[in-house]
């Protein structure tokens, strides 16, 4: 069965371990005394992010979280983006179809955006509000991987808004490094 908590524990553990060591990863994911293992998902998300933010600077924390994306549904979304790209000759066309708009893609003032009208993260289903956007950085990591594969170039992704931190939508800016259409 699909256990999103176990998946998140594993990806956070590996991302932290890659930036520090196994002991630090255990402390972040399970708490100093291991008691975080019994926390409900909403409490675990919040306490894990507090431990992460207390151990690393903002840049490293963001990098760790961007490396925590689970990859769920990646192939389907990649196929969708490649289909949109194949039917377009520029970014305006890429985002102009009803399918693109329904997926939350839009292009404004020379910038590509991706928005969600709801929080897409199943781990946050029972979380009313997050103190920071740290947890949400996994979505920027997911989007970075997705758009780099779809566009065939490096992409920066910036999280602008998050529903779980009190914004009305989740919003990311997608910035390709190279021209997509030549």
Structure notes:
The structure is a single chain. With 182 residues, this protein is α+β, with helices and mostly antiparallel strands. The protein has two domains: 63 residues, no CATH class; 103 residues, no CATH class. It is 48% helix and 13% strand. A four-stranded antiparallel β-sheet has the order 1-2-4-3. The longest helix is centred in the N-terminal third of the chain and has 16 residues. The relative contact order is 0.14. The mean pLDDT is 94.
Short description:
The chain has 182 residues and is an alpha+beta fold. It has 8 helices and 4 strands, in the order αααααααββαββ.
Q: For the report, how would you describe the main beta sheet?
A: 4 strands, antiparallel
Number of helices: 8
Give the strand line-up of the largest sheet: 1-2-4-3
How many domains, as an integer?
Answer: 2
- Based on secondary structure, the structural category is alpha+beta
Can you give the mean pLDDT?
94
Name the helicity range.
Answer: 40-55%
Terminal residue distance = 44 Å
Q: Which shape, going by the Cα principal axes?
A: elongated
Total beta strand runs: 4
* Order of secondary-structure elements: HHHHHHHEEHEE
């Amino acid at each position: 069965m699909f256990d999103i908590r176990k998946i998140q524990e594993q990806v956070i553990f590996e991302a932290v371990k890659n930036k520090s060591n196994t002991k630090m990863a255990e402390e972040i994911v399970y708490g100093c005394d291991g008691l975080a293992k019994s926390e409900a998902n909403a409490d675990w998300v919040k306490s894990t992010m507090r431990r992460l933010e207390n151990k690393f600077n903002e840049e490293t924390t963001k990098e760790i979280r961007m490396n925590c994306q689970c990859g769920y549904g990646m192939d389907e979304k990649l196929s969708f983006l490649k289909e949109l790209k194949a039917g377009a000759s520029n970014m305006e066309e890429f985002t102009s179809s009803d399918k693109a708009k329904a997926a939350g893609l839009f292009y404004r003032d020379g910038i590509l955006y991706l928005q969600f009208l709801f929080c897409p993260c199943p781990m946050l289903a029972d979380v009313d509000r997050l103190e920071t956007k740290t947890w949400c950085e996994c979505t920027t990591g997911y989007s970075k991987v997705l758009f780099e594969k779809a566009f065939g170039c490096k992409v920066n992704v910036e999280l602008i808004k998050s529903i779980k931190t009190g914004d009305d939508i989740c919003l990311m800016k997608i910035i390709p490094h190279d021209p997509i259409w030549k």
